Amino acid sequence: MQGELTYRGLFMRLGLAGMFLLVVFGYIYLQAYQLPGGMSLIFAGMIGGYMALNIGANDVANNVGPAVGSKAVSLTGAILIAAIFEASGALIAGGDVVSTIKKGIIDPSGFQDVEEFIWLMTGALLAAAVWLNFATAAGAPVSTTHSIVGGVLGAGIAAGGWDIANWGRMGQIAASWVISPLMGGLIAAGFLYLIKRTISYQVDQVAAARKVVPWLLSVMAWAFGTYLMLKGVKHVWKVSFPVAAMIGLGVAGVVFALVRSRLRSAEINTENPREGVNDLFTLPLVFAAALLSFAHGANDVANAVGPLAAINEAVVQGNISGKAGVPLWVMLIGALGISLGLALFGPKLIRTVGSEITELDKTRAYCIALAAAITVIIASQLGLPVSSTHIAVGGVFGIGFLRERIKLIYQRKLEQIRAHHTGVDAGVVDAFLHSFEQASFDEKRQMLRNLKQEAEPAEFSRKERRKLRRLYQQQLVERGAVVKIIAAWLITVPVSAFLAALFFYALRGMNAA
Fold it and tell me: What number of helices (H) and strands (E) belong to the chain?
């Protein structure tokens, strides 16, 4: 019975996705069937809708996954928030002109045949969509930007040869496979360690939270205010980094004053201070999910509509351009397709990011969301092409591996304490361990110093250290998920390029016949 319900739900979702593509087909058919090359535009429009569905199913999970995994918002609530703000970002701030040759990876001047250019962009779009579909089914969050980059690269080389590609730009994109997750992971881990030092490791966590949380949330407000100016509304209002940073600073000041005033009178759970501190990050995480989704819709909708806009330009105007105007119907396909894909197929990847890599609470999810915004800000100022998917998942990796490291170090300290008390009454050892666990970070350090002065430090063999490391690493980070995701990242561009070349040759052969 459970299997029947599962298959029934799958068929229902596939049916709704098919209905969306049929609506896309019907609308474009009425608009373009009389145009020369109109059937190519109709076919490309359906593929653009298919691509948008897959972006929603795969890429949007990174914006809301940590909030869902930490239980700051329910899965249904997250899907609703993301769908609304993704569509809003695409329609309000998506821009009326997009780059048709994503990231400048091939030179459009190398093409003179408009029909061949249409096949190229159609093949690239289809390849990216097919790869995203496969990655979603496999439960691997991948970069949609890298997928379309690979598609354009592969189809471009198939059409114009190796010299048409901008290999310097491709080298930068390949470097981002390392830069994006590394930056995201380090920044997320850094903020989590800061929270542990300033709040979690303090004797009075509630008092520490009242003092530190306003600063943490004001940093988040600055980051998201600046991020939204630089990435979310850049097509509507393009501002320089100093202006964006000043706007973010103003938002941060307001948030700091409001949060500090609120925390003075707010009741925080003193019986379970950890849970009480976690609850302080609930509302900020909801805002973070909404703002990340808005910025994602404003930027990544181009992955779906950029090639489609290029094809529309080629069919309607009969020319090839590196930039193309985006008709409202093209933007609607991207916006609605992303939202529908998220609602129908997004939960699988949301769970992967939110709970299947490592356990997240609201504090950890805050660190991941903040790392995503700060990493994009830094990368944009350095001119580095980074992937929001790699940043967010890298943040999850960073959090998990930091937790592993802290747990391992703490367990070693406990074992050293027991080794120092060899031959001592068990009650004395238990009393010391209890005092150690209740002490602040600085008090723990002093207790260990005093203990080492009284006796020789205990040494562990290499075998014992490996055993401890394996024990705690396996508990906190799912290695299988890490390997699967990294493998998918590494093959995204090559696989998309290979598929795009095949599709280009197939389309050209069909038209030649």
Answer: 19, 2
Instruction: Show the tokens assigned to 43.
Output: 């076919």
What integer pLDDT is reported at residue 460 of this predicted model?
A: 55
Task: Report how far residue 281's alpha carbon sits from residue 277's, in angstroms, rounded to the nearest whole number.
Answer: 8
Q: What is the pLDDT of residues 379-421, one digit of tens each?
A: 888 777 788 889 999 999 999 999 888 888 777 777 767 666 6
Distance CA 32, CA 41 (A): 7
pLDDT tens, position by position, 430-487? 666 666 666 666 666 666 666 666 655 555 566 666 665 565 555 678 888 899 999 9
- Cα separation, 266 vs 243, in Å, equals 34
CA-to-CA separations, 420 to 92, 279, 467, in angstroms, rounded? 65, 39, 20
- Look up tokens 């930039």; give the residue: 323
Nearest Cα residue to 302 out of 118, 103, 154, 478: 103
166-175: list long-range contacts, CB under 8 Å, 24+ apart: 166/104, 166/105, 166/106, 166/107, 169/103, 169/104, 169/105, 170/105, 172/384, 172/385, 173/103, 173/105, 173/146, 173/149, 173/385, 173/493, 174/493, 175/384
Per the CB < 8 A criterion, the answer to whether 119 and 487 are in contact is no
